[in-house]
Specification:
homodimer; alpha/beta; CBS-domain; Tetracycline Repressor, domain 2; 4-stranded mixed sheet; 3-stranded mixed sheet
């Protein structure tokens, strides 16, 4: 790309965006179509993102089925799901039939059961409907959910002659397919082997392809999850694996590219969950009520955990009353420890992802983090303790505050390092639960340490 | 992969890990080599991760250059960089020469200038050295940093005959290369066109390939960043783009696969930065001192920001003294608002990544977030306010606490939604700076709101 192109686009986009919204408001179909057909996919996403729900529904209703399918195909998945939800079931079914089984299944998977069944019931083509239903039934990050059905297979009893004739006669049908390799199956569509294009071309015309194929190729199973796929692609430098079901029947191929894209989506998912965006991605174009409820679903349990931590402070009211300066340091100690603990959480989650540690390595992780916590705890404790001592001209206040921060730092990095391992062991998503567990525990221990140490030193503090 | 395989590995790994560490401790070279050569790449990463710095250096020193290069190639990048740093410069140079220019450049890029130059000075092959230096000079997430040099090009004046002869005579030299497409260059290695293998094979033997090629192919520039690459791959459904420099000379190809992997790494980077792991990935096998300093580099500024926020509490000591119950609610209000604001940060960063919003959309974002903040603020404020009122049997305490949480929720989601847009506009990494800015502002405003509202209602609170 040349830089000038990008700049030109940057200048064009605001004018186009304004014209687009005006056109949707005035229902100017011609202008809408013109702008959408000239816009890049990312501008299309942005334009559609600017529309309110009513305007967007209107836009979808004025497009032809083909145009709506094309637009949906260019949206971010969360946007496309959102648009689909708002379409009448029969319209949605026709748009999905246009989109192909893979993408349709991926979108339907994200709808609730009822809407999804209502749409599937409106499919014209029963076979297509079954394909989409099957695709939607796989987890998004499994081989079945990531595979492409653009795969060319032939029966092992076919001859080279037969295959070449079929390819020649229906060349246009195969234009979308990956045709460097063909897959060889038996009468029950069970995968028997793989055949490179060059071996086909160089083979004797009368030979059966079952005799030319490489038998028993490496495969992945439809149920294999992302971690297993990652291992498979690391083990073999293939660009794609054939995907088979439990009976060994060929279902599709999963490419290295699709695996990498899924990894990137999984990282995004982790970041969003760790930030408290749970129950699916949120877009600002979603209805306010839905956005509020989703965010509150995370904040609600958090308020309870916060209450738990705050109850520690409540039980030390007398101590606080006597040394009011402590109230200044309570949030600091809990916040600083939370930050230290979060660093340990991130390192553990990262090392788990890279395969450098496993849940059973908890003793090593604990030992390493305690040692680091002691070091950083001393540094941070001395800094904060000195500030406290100087501020109130009381060395004991410094000892209480600094000591509490030091001890709480050790505790929080140890817990932060361990929690992801334990959660992973018990099959809970570490990205989702590590943060709240860590924050609650370190808040409680931080408040407790400051206030109980202050209680011990009370004679020197007042 | 079959499930039984995975289970078997799971059982084998601990025994292998134990034997591995023993072998390194007793310097049992045979056992070390045997275990490493039988282990999968992820087990290798885990085994090496278990070693202390001294043991790891010893391991590197007993392997042959080829073995060390192979091991390094299987490590996570952060591990490989770490191992390289600890090798003598001449040893490191030989290992890198074994690894190939692409991977070597990627590793050297992460070293400091001095170590990197020391290693480059020990390269045996001057041409190889220049290639590695050039690779290391590109940003890791630019086309130049992601491209592969496994690309086959021919002069446009070559005939089909010449090319076929060259390919036939040196077949083994091209076995690693992507040979579905050949690139056609002029005498100055400027890219002129692209030639599909099938067109070459079907072409008249005496024809110059300049006449068979597709001229002026789409390209990317070595300096193009990840966002530009993403756009390019979205615009065209290619599996790879040729990469050219400013003069149009062919430098390599960048595959869709490599772009996806980089995206996934960028997401990881964002997550780590948002969690306070800055200045590069941390592994627990790194020296304690380095890990402490890196983590403190993030915690240090944080302690200052925390002090700033706490100073608000300090200036209201009299209010707190009068109504000690407020101390219980200060951390709750600031923490809850922080959580709400973080959700808005995550949604903004996500929408920026997807291209649904741009920095110039700040008014729409602000409006949407204020509206949501009002809703969630009322819900959370009523809950916390009711609890406070019931606990101390004082409706005014409830009004103060609930009101402060409501107002601070609106403020924090508005700021949380905006900050990533502003940081992006001013070219600061939103993942790095959004969190601390948000936390400091919402802590300060939360403390201020609780304490100043309490001041106003003081007559009713005591």
């Amino acid at each position: 790309m040349k830089t000038e192109d990008v700049n030109e686009e940057d200048m064009l986009a605001p004018a186009m965006a304004k014209r687009f919204i005006e056109a949707v408001e005035t229902e100017d179909l011609e202008v809408i179509k013109e702008i959408l057909s000239n816009a890049e996919a990312d501008d299309q996403r942005r334009f559609v993102g600017m529309l309110g729900g009513k305007e967007r529904d209107h836009l979808c209703s004025v497009l032809t089925t083909e145009e709506a399918a094309h637009l949906l195909g260019n949206m971010a998945e969360a946007q496309a799901v959102d648009m689909l939800e708002d379409m009448p079931a029969d319209r949605a079914a026709h748009v999905l039939e246009e989109l192909g089984a893979d993408l349709s299944g991926d979108l339907l998977r994200e709808l609730d059961e009822e809407s999804s069944e209502a749409i599937l019931a409106e499919f014209d083509d029963a076979e297509n409907c079954e394909e989409v239903r099957e695709r939607a039934s796989y987890e998004w990050d499994s081989a079945g959910g990531l595979m492409s059905d653009h795969v060319v297979s032939f029966r092992q009893i076919a001859t080279v002659e037969d295959v070449l004739k079929e390819l020649g006669d229906h060349a246009e049908d195969y234009s979308d397919d990956e045709v460097q390799y063909f897959y060889v199956v038996d009468g029950e569509h069970k995968l028997k082997g793989v055949l490179a294009l060059r071996n086909l071309v160089l083979g004797k015309r009368s030979k059966q392809i079952g005799d030319l194929m490489i038998p028993d190729p490496a495969t992945v199973n439809v149920e294999d999850d992302l971690e297993e796929l990652q291992d498979a692609f690391e083990r073999k430098k293939y660009l794609a694996f054939p995907v088979v079901d439990a009976e060994g029947r060929l279902k599709g191929i999963v490419t290295r590219d699709a695996m990498q894209e899924a990894l990137s989506d999984a990282q995004t998912d982790r970041y969003l969950k760790a930030s408290g965006i749970v129950g699916g991605e949120e877009l600002r174009s979603m209805p306010l009520k839905e956005r509020c409820i989703r965010r509150l679903a995370w904040l609600g349990p958090n308020i309870l955990l916060n209450l738990l931590a705050a109850s520690i402070i409540a039980s030390y009211e007398d101590t606080l009353q006597a040394v009011i300066a402590l109230a200044v340091f309570l949030p600091m100690v809990s916040d600083m420890s939370g930050c230290s603990g979060n660093q340990a959480v991130a390192v553990s989650i990262r090392e788990l992802t890279l395969g450098i540690i496993q849940p059973r390595d908890y003793i090593r992780v604990l030992f390493k983090e305690i040692w680091l916590g002691l070091n950083n705890g001393i540094v941070l404790g001395v800094v904060l303790g000195t500030l406290a001592a100087v501020w109130k001209d009381n060395i004991y206040l410094g000892l209480v505050v600094g000591g509490a921060l030091m001890l709480n730092t050790i505790l929080s990095v140890a817990i932060g390092g361990l929690v992801p391992l334990l959660l992973k062991k018990f099959k809970v998503d570490p990205a989702l639960a590590s943060g709240p567990i860590l924050t609650t525990v370190t808040d409680m221990s931080g408040f407790f340490l400051v206030l109980s140490l202050a209680n011990l030193a009370m004679g020197q503090l007042v």
